[in-house]
Records
---
Amino acid sequence: MDKQHSVMLVDDSLAMLGVIQIHLKETEFKVVATARNGDDAIKAFCEHKPELVLLDIVMPGKNGIETLGEIMGIDDAASVIMASSLGTRELVEQSIELGARNFVQKPYEREVLLDVMRNVIDHNQTTQ
Ligand SMILES: [Mg+2]
């Protein structure tokens, strides 16, 4: 396998975190941190500096949009992919305006998730 890319997963649902981790098994992506709320996500982002962040939008407390804003304030080159369920189109658009690189629709389909993640990594590699 080529070089692995570090990823942080953020979702308030433990079950959802489990699903994503299964999807990423035996791929080039290595989960270096998980968080279940915005504050923990920001702390873990600073600690691990992951190449990619997969960030749930709907979370109790600090939501994904607010969390995204703080992450981009810490590192404006951060690569963040938002995760949204149906009916959150406006939130997705807001996220892209704030600097998110892309979004994936929940529930996750493995191939779609991997495609979106690979596109962001490829884009980073060609613009470096
Ligand atoms: Mg959620």
---
Amino acid sequence: MATSRRNFLKSASCASVPFILPSHIWAGATKQSDLPNMAFIGLGIQARGLLANFLQQDVKVVAMCDVDKTRREDGVKRVDDFYKDHPDKGTPGNCKGYSDFREVLARKDIDLVCVATPDHWHAYITVAAMRAGKDVYCEKPLTYNIPEAVAVMKAAKRYNRILQTGAMQRSSFEFLTAAELVRNGCIGKITRVDCNFGGPSRPHFDPPKDIPMEPGLDFDMWCGGAPLVKYNDQLAPRGVHNFYPMVWRMDDLFGSGYCGDWGAHHLDIAQWGLGMDNSGPVKVTKAERTEKDKANAQLGGRAQSGVVLEFADGVKLTHNPFSTFGTVFYGTDGTISVNRGKFEMTHGKELVSTYSKKGDAGSLEGALAKARKAFLTDSTYKTKLYKTKGGHPADFVACAKSRQRACSNEDIGGRAAILCHLCNMSYVRDASFDWNPSRNTFANGTGNPAWLVREGGYRDNWDVHALTKRWWTL
Ligand SMILES: NC(=O)c1ccc[n+]([C@@H]2O[C@H](COP(=O)([O-])OP(=O)(O)OC[C@H]3O[C@@H](n4cnc5c(N)ncnc54)[C@H](O)[C@@H]3O)[C@@H](O)[C@H]2O)c1
């Protein structure tokens, strides 16, 4: 028997009742009418890539939402054009454009939502979507701050929703291999980890001159719970282009610098390798600021690298600048270094295998196979980590059907976001502090709870905590 999406929705929306749909019920659900309906909220550069991928999955894209008219119309056209060319997958003309995401979430026929707005909107839209009975693919870092991460982790459970964080390195074989080698003790006991990415967020600066607003952008809704700042076409770039928007990422009010942007990937892989997916560090030690750091007002006088996160077992994770490898594990018997398309393993004084760029001898696959064959043998390969099939978006769609947890579920994405924010907070506050990863609070009288929340509160009640009426305790 195939379950129609209408029946699926009816059962899935009983949010207070635990809901597990056996995967065999979905097995025959390949008819177009039975496929889940999907919406996209936030249609920037990342959403375009995700859309191209999700259109290939067993979903029908029926709603495209952006506060920018040009991007919204372009999104709808992309969907229509795809279904014109692939009538077996969907019907052109069925996808509607929206400026206000609340109208999308109010649609009862929508099952899946992809959130690819700037980070300051992630938590609110994700929790609102889950409360409305939708499963959510939300981009990384999962949230803008730590209490928001706690809220998303709790909301996914409260509403029995499937959540996938867009930290797609979890679906790449080089990262899986690195984490499995570490977790199976192939380089001995881990003593330290390096995570290599750019610097922290920066103070907000308004443009020196007024920039005229082009029509078709709801900038108030773009700013959301953040302060309504002066319009800035670098902060919220208009139009459909390949300009990578770094300004909001680096801005204290909207992002968390590279700590959130790349930290969400490389710190996440460190957590995976260390087996810390349900925990986190207990101590954060600040980086010493150089005279050059102090003199740089644009960067807020902040140090740019060197924060150390220490785990309860004594493992120290250091944030260093961008480098060839994103995450490097140091063990008593060797090292494992990994990045996208790059892998290296040493054991004792031996180089086991290496591949980091075109032109190197061999291939990435060869380097991974050599390390796996030598070290993940029948007797050592005890810990097998979650291996996705068909990639990160496909894992989300499969999990929404099977009701199994996704490979980068709310706890994994939430905990990774917490690491990003601990790291960024240490730079912004120029502070060292102790941390309680069970309660997600400062420990031993250190830190300041005011650092955890949005300074000045949220504007216009765009506060995820108001949404959930504080049914959790921090
Ligand atoms: N997984 C990855 O490797 C990866 C790569 C790039 C970006 N990202 C993440 O994807 C997200 C989007 O990044 P981007 O580079 O595409 O940014 P972007 O600025 O290009 O796109 C964001 C879009 O969201 C829209 N938006 C803002 N507020 C909105 C609202 N209230 N409702 C609807 N739309 C709204 C903006 O108008 C814009 O079109 C970020 O969280 C980023 O960290 C992830």
---
Amino acid sequence: MTLAIRTEDLVKDYGDVRALDGLSLEVEQGEFFGLLGPNGAGKTTFINTLVGLARATGGTAEVFGHDVADDYREARNRIGLAPQEFNVDRFFPIREVLEHKAGYHGVPPAEASERADEALRTVGIYDKRDTRFDWLSGGMKRRFLLARALVTDPDLLILDEPTAGVDVELRRDLWELIERLNAGGTTILLTTHYIEEAERLCDRVAIMDEGRRVEVATPDELRARGTDTVRLTLAQRPAAVPSAVRAIDGVQDATLDGDGLSVTAAGGGRVAPDLMRTLEDAGHRVVDIDIRRASLEEVFVAMTRRDEGGDGAENGHDAEREIAAADGGLHDE
Ligand SMILES: Nc1ncnc2c1ncn2[C@@H]1O[C@H](COP(=O)(O)OP(=O)(O)O)[C@@H](O)[C@H]1O
Ligand SMILES: [Mg+2]
């Protein structure tokens, strides 16, 4: 089957800044794919390259087999994008904005109206259809961006940090909605800062840093690479860590911790029985045991850790505003 997204050695330079540095990625049709990375990693640049808002300096990118530069129209018409920043025609009723968007992608007028209504209903703001974008609340603006991405009935839905700054309730709503779309066959590419979101929603995630791909795996596989912590409470506080504990296969470290021990290991569940046995053999009585699994977040942080002082937040933000000016194409979205 044709891949939904296929990029090979994708490079994007902005002057001296290499935003994408040889990025190769494959996303299958129907996948729920997450793109994780610290601020400035190149996530938005990657997306902008796919939708034609940025031109790659090198390498290739295809969407459903269409080259994003040579077959721009074909590729672009398959994609619905909810961008990170608001970029909406503010002066028209939102329903008209949607009709116009659908028309721009080749949908005939009568059908465009139906699609607009349907998209507004899907995201739950149909009763606001005659309102200008400016007058919507922050949460409704987010919903609207999703409606606009959906109005062309895309095969690939790209969401660039769709839940940044939204309240918990809206986040749950959006999750439910995109899960439903994905169950209906829509391929999803989601970038997010919320690891919990990636963990819960994504089939696979790519971790990227400094324009490169660090890893691609399922959330479970990634978590399995992290370090678990096994906390053992003993009936009597030990004077020292029994030396046999550190000798157990898989144990990385063991320290005294209050009335017990804290043991770190690659697989907490695997070492737990050996730990219990070893401690009992050494004359201790284990009264409680608690295994805390590594979170995807810890694994993520370990994989993308860099020197202190590398600020990303502000860079990343400025970057997106500059894109609007540099490529002059955001009116399309
Ligand atoms: N239009 C631009 N002009 C100059 N530099 C840019 C531009 N867009 C992005 N960059 C730079 O490219 C890098 C990647 O940015 P971006 O793709 O926005 O990362 P992310 O979305 O992962 O936070 C950053 O160093 C950013 O400053
Ligand atoms: Mg971004």
